[in-house]
Specification:
The structure holds 2 protein chains of 2 kinds.
Chain A lengths: L1 H7 L1 H4 L23 H7 L6 E7 L3 E7 L4 H4 L6 H22 L6 H23 L1
Antiparallel strand pairs in A: 1-2
Chain B lengths: L1 E5 L1 H9 L4 H10 L3 E5 L1 H9 L11 H14 L1 E2 L15 H10 L3 E3 L14 E3 L1 H10 L3
Parallel strand pairs in B: 1-2, 1-4, 2-3, 4-5
Helix pairs in contact in B: 1-2, 2-6
Classes of the chains: A mainly alpha, B alpha/beta.
C-alpha cells in the first residue's frame, strides 16, 4: 500500500519513505489493521493516537497522526450571556456571508426541506440500530 | 418571554440568508424577545443537518460554534418521554421538546409535518409569528 502511495505521488512522498519503512499488513475483522511496532516507533506513535485517513485516488489511503486538543482552548466559552448573544449574532452574520460566497444562499425551501428530511431519515436509522 | 422550539428547517433558513422571516426571527432571539428551547435530540439535528446537500460546504468549526452558542444562549430541557403525534417519527422529537419546555410555539417551515397543536404549543411559521409580534398578540 505504501509503495502504491509512493508511486502515485512521487514528488511528495518518495523522499520521505525508504524501503525499510514499507510493510505489508493484513486487514482484519471490522477493518482493524496493525502497524508493526518498528513503524510505530519510527513515527513516534503511541496507543490512543488519533489517525486521520485520507482516501486518495485508486483508492489508496494516506494515514496521518493527529493531535487532539481541548475544544475550550480553541473556542473559549463566552464570559457571560450578554457576550454570548453578541457572539451568536456575529457567528450568524459570518455564516450568512459564507453562504453568499459559496452560493449556499441559493438553496430553495424545497432543497432545505430535502436536506432536513434526509438527515432525519439517517438519524432514524441510526437510532433504530442503536436500540437493537 | 416567548418560549419557542425552532424546527431545523427554520434554523437553516435563518442562517443561510439575512433576509426573510426566519432571519428576522433569529434577530428576535438575539435581542432576547424570543427564547429558544431544545433537547439533546434537537441539538443533534441542528448540527447534523450541516452534513447534507449544499450545507456541507460550510466551515465545520463555524457550525460547531453556532451549536455551542445556541446551547449557551437558549434553554436546554429534558424530554419527558416519547410522544406520537406526527406520522413523521422524527418530528415527534420537536413535539417532545415543546412539551418539556412548555413552549408557546413550534416554529417551522413544514406546518404539514406538524398536524396539530399540542397542549399549549401552537404550530406556526416564522412569518406568522412576526405578524403576531407586530400586532402585539404573541
Amino acid at each position: 500500500m505504501l509503495q502504491e502511495v509512493v508511486e502515485s505521488r512521487p514528488g511528495r512522498l518518495s523522499e520521505i519513505l525508504d524501503p525499510m519503512s514499507q510493510v505489508l499488513v493484513k486487514l482484519q475483522k471490522k477493518g482493524t489493521m496493525v502497524l508493526p511496532r518498528r513503524l510505530r516507533e519510527m513515527a513516534g506513535l503511541t496507543e490512543g493516537t488519533l489517525m486521520k485517513v485520507d482516501v486518495l485516488e485508486g483508492p489508496r489511503f494516506l494515514v496521518t497522526p493527529q493531535v487532539a486538543i481541548d475544544r475550550d482552548l480553541v473556542t473559549s466559552k463566552p464570559k457571560n450571556r450578554k457576550e454570548a448573544f453578541r457572539e451568536l449574532a456575529q457567528v450568524v452574520a459570518e455564516l450568512r456571508q459564507e453562504a453568499k460566497e459559496k452560493g449556499i444562499d441559493k438553496m430553495t425551501k424545497q432543497e432545505i426541506n430535502a436536506a432536513v428530511a434526509a438527515m432525519r431519515r439517517d438519524l432514524k436509522k441510526t437510532s433504530k440500530r442503536s436500540a437493537k | 418571554m416567548i418560549r419557542v422550539v425552532v424546527d431545523t428547517s427554520a434554523l437553516v433558513s435563518a442562517v443561510i440568508s439575512p433576509t426573510g422571516p426566519n432571519a428576522q426571527l433569529f434577530d428576535f432571539i438575539v435581542s432576547k424577545q424570543i427564547r429558544p428551547y431544545f433537547t439533546d435530540d434537537v441539538l443533534v439535528e441542528y448540527y447534523t443537518v450541516f452534513d447534507y446537500k449544499h450545507l456541507k460546504q460550510y466551515n465545520r468549526r463555524r457550525v460547531a460554534r453556532l451549536r455551542d452558542l445556541l446551547e449557551y444562549t437558549g434553554i436546554k430541557v429534558k424530554s419527558r418521554g416519547r410522544l406520537k403525534i406526527s406520522s413523521h417519527e422524527t418530528d415527534n422529537r420537536i413535539y417532545e421538546c415543546a412539551q418539556a419546555a412548555k413552549a408557546h410555539y413550534i416554529i417551522t417551515e413544514n406546518t404539514k409535518h406538524f398536524p396539530k397543536a399540542h397542549a399549549y404549543t401552537k404550530i406556526i411559521t416564522a412569518r406568522q409569528l412576526l405578524r403576531l409580534l407586530e400586532a402585539g398578540g404573541a
